[in-house]
Design goal:
By secondary structure, the protein is of the alpha/beta class. The protein has a domain of 174 residues: Aminopeptidase, CATH 3.40.630. It contains 8 helices and 6 strands; from the N terminus they run H-H-E-H-E-H-E-E-H-E-H-E-H-H. Strand 4, helix 5 and strand 5 form a beta-alpha-beta unit.
Length: 251
């Protein structure tokens, strides 16, 4: 309808009517950005998400890629899938949850990143287990993007409360990986513990401990949706680095 006709219907001048329309459009734009709006960003150079409805859960490895074999002979791919499914069950009532894999199948890392990027207003949580010297233990959480920092920090804080022994928290790590840099949504990678440590491997093979790990991750996601960056301190500066490649070190 022409602006003049709208003005006549409301007995307003065209100038006042235009101002009202512009204000209404601005209000709609702000509403879409405040929780539930798109969380997409090429570099992640924005505050962390709040109010997002979708969580993409990635169980690391799978199929021909077993991951680390572990001290108990249980390959990483099976433990990662078990924990990822437990996270999914805890988030499903509140979120739309999307699994990159729900069975023992191989998916390339680039395909996982592309799959996650197809989901707007979402975050990606990738589940893995670590391996190193038999003396090293404890969870680590990796992030790269500024918009992923608060979620990563919440996850690491919650995992720290789960670990049953001193000095078990390996901390928050900023690392450019294909699953922490390349998706166009906030994305973190959680190393739930070290399968190369016999004590921790025994814990990670236990269903009740996997439940505790899964609940710690799910609680962090729920808190991020509710509070955004609140309480997480200053955000790190964005780093405008190119996408991670298979040839990059420590990928």
């Amino acid at each position: 309808m022409p602006l003049e006709e709208v003005a006549r219907m409301e007995d307003l001048s065209p100038t006042v009517t235009l101002q009202r329309l512009l204000l209404a459009s601005l209000a709609a734009l702000l509403a879409s950005c405040a929780g539930g709006g798109s969380t997409r960003s090429k570099y992640g150079d924005r505050p962390g998400p709040k109010g997002f409805p979708v969580v993409v859960i990635d169980a690391g490895h799978g199929g021909k890629d077993s991951g680390t074999p572990g001290r108990l002979g249980i390959p990483e791919k099976h433990v990662a899938l078990s924990i990822a499914q437990r996270v999914q069950r805890r988030l499903a009532p509140q979120f739309k949850t999307v699994m990159t894999r729900n069975s023992d199948r191989f998916i390339e890392l680039d395909a996982r990143a592309s799959f996650a990027s197809r989901h707007g207003s979402a975050v990606l949580v990738s589940i893995h287990l670590n391996s190193s010297s038999s003396r090293i233990c404890g969870p680590e959480t990796y992030y790269w993007r500024t918009d992923s920092y608060s979620l990563a920090r919440r996850v690491q804080q919650n995992l720290n409360a789960v670990v049953p022994y001193k000095n078990g928290n390996r901390g928050l790590v900023r690392r450019r990986l294909r699953l922490t840099r390349n998706p166009s949504i906030p994305c973190i990678l959680v190393e739930c513990g070290y399968l190369s440590n016999s004590r921790e491997a025994s814990l990670l093979a236990n269903a009740s401990y996997q439940d505790r790990i899964a609940e710690a991750i799910a609680r962090a996601v729920r808190d991020q949706k509710a509070y955004g960056d609140a309480g997480m301190g200053p955000l790190p500066r964005p780093i405008y680095a190119p996408p991670s490649l298979p040839t990059d070190p420590r990928e």
